[in-house]
Amino acid sequence: MKMKQLIATTAVALGAAWGTSAPAAEYELDISTMFPSTHFIQTLALEKWAEEIEERTDGRVAFTFHPAGSSLGDATRQFDQVRSGVVDVAVGIPAIPRGRHPRTTLIELPFTVPDSDVGTCALMAIQDQLKPDFPGTKILSLTVTEPSAAHTTQRISSLDDLEGMRIRTPTPAITAMLEHIGATPVGMPPTEIYESVERGVVDGNIMPWGPVGAFKLWEVLEYHYDARINPVSMYVLMNQRTYDSLPDDVRQVIDDMSGDWFTQRWGKWWSDTDQDAIDAARENGNEIIEVPDEVRDQWRERLQPVIDTYLEEESDLGAEQARALYEDMRAAVARCQE
Hints:
alpha/beta; 6-stranded mixed beta sheet; 5-stranded mixed beta sheet
């Protein structure tokens, strides 16, 4: 960023000397994301955020996006890029790659959050406890998607009906849940699900509605048991050195445009995107089974042994630390529901 600042300052000086305008901003910041440039994460969330910062700083700050498909768009490298300063801001998923951010991903345990609004509120409420997951960076926002449904090739009326079925699993915790039920979990990237369903390799998938729409999985998975099982968490981080090098007034703008600005909006962004996929599934004639809160509460109790085992043995944290943090997370969820 310092080199960019020098280039921008030089451009201003040359522009003045030559009598021409110099459009370069004083602070040029790079944002990398693991999402395509057409995804709402960029078009609706990040571009609006960047534009607001540019306006509030009178054009002194400008952003360049590096989405999926670019040299900086690899999902597995987002955190390393922002921590090292290759980019100034990065957007990624804590579960990719697995084991790197074990505190934040506790929010993804089954039936921990009811929706994106509450899950996002809870993560931000305990963000100080999650900072060890993101060394060398400043947390601008943490959020979760709307929780996932069970999308299957045959109708189910309970998660118990997954017994004996081959189900694509997204995380170790969901793998444990499926094994507890008696299903056979199958790991694979989202890009392989459609063809795997067509070939009969899997009978279903646990996933939020957003990617079901993005990958058009409603075309091959025609039954949707909307149990709101688990969300996927996401971070927006800034390189700490970049942040510290900015002048006080620019840092204040970034502070004002982070945290609450995102938190108040993520729930609607996630739910609106999910609704597009739900509408597409309904137009296709698919069946969507709604699951009441009391059934979700029953499943949370039934899956407590799965959660206990994960906290004690599989979280990549010490058992005592994992359990204490998870309890704090659950307490934050309860407060955010009030």
